[in-house]
Here is the input.
Amino acid sequence: MRPEQRTSFARYRHSLWLLTQRDLRVRYSTSLLGYFWSILDPLVMAGIYWFVFTQVFSRGVGHEPYIIFLLSALLPWMWFNGTVSDCTRAFLREAKLIRSTRIPRTIWVNRLVLSKGIEFIASIPVLIFFAILAGAPITAGAFLFPLAILIQTVLTIGVGLMVAPLVVFFRDLERAVKLVLRFLFYASPIIYSTTDLPSSLHFWAAFNPLSGIFGLYRAAFFPDNLDWLTVGISAGMSLALLGLGILVFKRTERAVLKEI
Amino acid sequence: MQAPVISLTGVGIRFRRNRRGRRNFKDLFAGGRRRNRPDEFWALRDVSFTVQRGEAIGVVGRNGQGKSTLLKLVTGVVLPDEGTVHVTEGVAPLIEITGGFVDDLTVRDNVYLTAGLHGMTRSQVDARFDDILDFAEIGDFIDTPYKHLSSGMKVRIAFAVISRLEEPILLVDEVLAVGDKAFREKCYRRIEELLAGGRTLFFVSHNERDLRRFCTRGLYLDKGALALDGPIDDVLALYNTQYGIKPA
Here is the structure.
């Protein structure tokens, strides 16, 4: 097939896949432990929190088994966190390629979302492994996983489309984003559940789009944890952020291309 | 007459004079139609022309008059602040000396990546791969990271790939000046082949002989405006009377 016969959508998809493949190949072929590294980070973190909250402090938060409770939110958090922090360098790192190809520029954000998303999906067996180990029953809530992935994709693309171009102009944002992400880690129901918060905060916690998303992931093991109102607000917030992201991206694209 | 493959209408683009200047959110979101600011200048303004399929166009002008910017606009890697750029067919650009190759990847990976981003499938690249390497004459360095190549090799491999893309429009900036004489001649023969095959060419050069060799039409850019659009001989004549050294 000659390239000019392809539609621009097919071409975009082809390029997106090509860049994602390259990302994954670079990450996995240059290191000895490859795949292991992508799951080691969440595992170590889960191990630390598990130790601190079950062995050191007597824990009053989350659900039993706590390691499953942790991992079911920590793994998707890694996806979100990894993508957003990589987005701060999305344009700067690939400046040369961006200056020589005319593919729609959203690809530089989307390919990060996709490659980190694939890593996330590749890490799901770890969750299943621990679930079997801890003897946690998997409920029908597992069918909500695809919905959770969909909402998280929308949210991550939206945030990425805002972060990536703005960092080009305000380099300080790179650090600010890291700080906000760390804050967000504790502000999201990862090591605790939304129901553990003081009731005055319940309403506000729902506006963190990650609350509903993590609730959906956890529905596989903790169906009681699921609150459809929170999920609805999350979906709405995610769509709004995507809309805002597209707007920001469109308005700044011209200036970004001149700057890099 | 066929519809033009490239058409620019009232195109203008402006840049900031000092890149480190203060930025604010208002600037950034103001879009393309805001008033001119003192620290900005128009690199190109009111440029309009159309190009038919198969034309070979030479772009002439002194340094800093917007030649490269014009090529970037046609490629679509920068967007105009006013006017519209309409390009109906794919563009193979050789604008930057490195052709957009990534330093850390090997030559092989770079070939597949660049060709792939221009829409070629793996098997299409496979089919041309040996041909590309032969042309670039860098056989032994195929698995060397691109950054370790000499600048001559970088240009050779970049040209070899870009000229093998199936894109109907070819843009060549002054980059070929780096290669040695024999390779340059080889590149020029390739360009002639492509022209004979019906490709559209945009060629930037300071070398009159090269311009006359390929191009039938010239665009003369001066002070950010399109000063003359006509047969290449007229364009060169005007350029020489304004800035050239008088023929002895």
Remarks:
- The first helix of chain A runs from residue 8 to 29.
- The mean pLDDT of chain A is 87.
- The two ends of chain A are 34 Å apart (CA to CA).
